[in-house]
Amino acid sequence: MADNSIDVNNTNDDDLHEHYRFVVDRGQGLLRIDKFLMDRIENASRTKIQTAASNGNIVVNEIPVKSSYKVKPGDVIRIMMEEPVRSIELIPEAIPLDIEYEDEDVIVVNKKAGMVVHPAYGNYSGTLVNALLYHLDKSDERLGLLSTGPYLVHRIDKDTSGLMVVAKNEETQRKLQGQFADHSIDRIYNALVWGDLKDDAGTITGNIARSKSDRKIFTVYQDSSVGKHAITHYKVLERFGYVTLVECELETGRTHQIRVHMKYIGHPLFNDETYGGNRILRGTTFSKYQQFVQNCFKLCPRQALHARVLGFDHPTTGKHLRFEKPLATDVADVIEKWRHYAIHKSMDGMDNG
Questions:
Q1: Largest CA distance in the chain
Q2: DSSP string covering 194-225, please?
Q3: pTM tops 0.70
Q4: Distance in angstroms (rounded) separating the CA atoms of residues 66 and 75
Q5: Of 83, 193, 295, 327, which has the most beta carbons under 10 Å away?
């Protein structure tokens, strides 16, 4: 008998929000769940439902199922999505976009720090999606399970800058999501972290899930039954004594992955308020040094993290595309400030800022 369930370790129900719930009638005959849902959700496409199933977003009796699962009388079907349910329409907004590349299938954008990718509670406007709706001349579109472009493939945090790819149609989204799933996407970030790393390069492995003590943050669990498998490769680019510039390459893409993994090994990102990097974690008690760090915080008022490289196979042509975007100005400026500090410190042996 075919196994119609999917690996529950690849999903984390705590991260998801219920968008739809159906209880199958007693008289319902056996029917594939994708067909069942197409008949019950207005404007639902089979491709979108199948993608939701493959991502673990369709749950039957608390177990994620494949699109080939056949519903039975009494089944409780829930559709769980990352975004909370919204009751308002998304409005196109004329927000400037830094577009690196665009064709009829994909858009590669350089997202600025401070911009939320997708509307959610407390951020229904001013997002990348609002800007893309305007750019694509879309209006009155809802971007949940049944959306009609733009189609998000991945996302980066609000206060992280750098490269993202967005699909213009469902087929492109599905193919790109497949590349993310099989880890064939190139994603390289630059980060300034606290401390002087012991090794020049390494790999951080640890499941990531929401913290049990604070639901707003994520943490690493060594228990393989908790959270989602996550792997980050890093190498040191430049050492400044109390902080280090590193390159991080993602093998998986979990929420806050680099920020959580670097904190896990004792090197939080510089000025990452969520994970404790907005405190002076390394250095001296000299007042000039303390003032120097505070000035650095003001210069880069967010976590010093930038998505520098993005590479993928074009979903239509098959050609490998690779994009690289230099560090955002605030991150580059704070790195230069630390570079001068490190040189000055080595010359006079004093911790002056």
A1: 84
A2: ES--SSSEEEEE-EEEE-SS-TTSEEEES-TT
A3: yes
A4: 14
A5: 193
User: In this structure, are residues 8 and 60 in contact, taking their beta carbons and an 8 Å threshold?
Assistant: no
- What angle separates helix 170-181 from helix 46-54, to the nearest 10 degrees? 10
Q: Flag whether pLDDT at 219 surpasses 90.
A: yes
Active-site annotation holder among 25, 75, 103, 157: 157
Torsion angle, alpha carbons of 277, 254, 84, 102, to 10: 100
Q: Which amino acid is at 305?
A: L
DSSP class per residue in 257-276? HHHHHHHHTT-PBTT-TTTT
Cα separation, 269 vs 334, whole angstroms = 13
Question: Long-range contact list for 61-65, CB < 8 A, 24+ apart?
Answer: 63/5, 63/8, 64/5, 64/6, 64/7, 64/8, 64/10, 64/11, 65/4, 65/5, 65/6, 65/33
* pLDDT digits 0-9 by tens, 147-185: 456 888 899 999 999 999 999 988 898 899 889 988 899
Instruction: Give the three-class secondary structure for 109.
Output: strand
Beta bridge partners of 167: 106, 151
Q: Give the integer Cα–Cα distance in Å for 140 and 132.
A: 13
What distance in Å separates the CA atoms of residue 260 and residue 254, rounded to the nearest whole number? Answer: 10
- Is residue 302 within 8 Å of residue 115, measured between CB atoms? no
Structural domains of the chain in order of their starting residue, each with its CATH number: 8-81 (3.10.290.10), 84-182 (3.30.2350.10), 187-353 (3.30.2350.10)
* Known catalytic residue at 157: yes
Helix (H) or strand (E) holding 239: strand 231-239
> What is the structure's pLDDT at 11?
38
Assess whether pLDDT exceeds 90 at residue 76.
Answer: yes
Give the per-residue SS3 of 54-108.
HCCCEEECCEEECCCCEECCCCEEEEEECCCCCCCCECCCCCCCCEEEECCCEEE
* Sign of the torsion formed by the C-alpha atoms of 20, 26, 28 and 31: positive
Total length of the chain: 353
Which of 311, 296, 286, 345 is closest to 192 using CA atoms?
A: 296
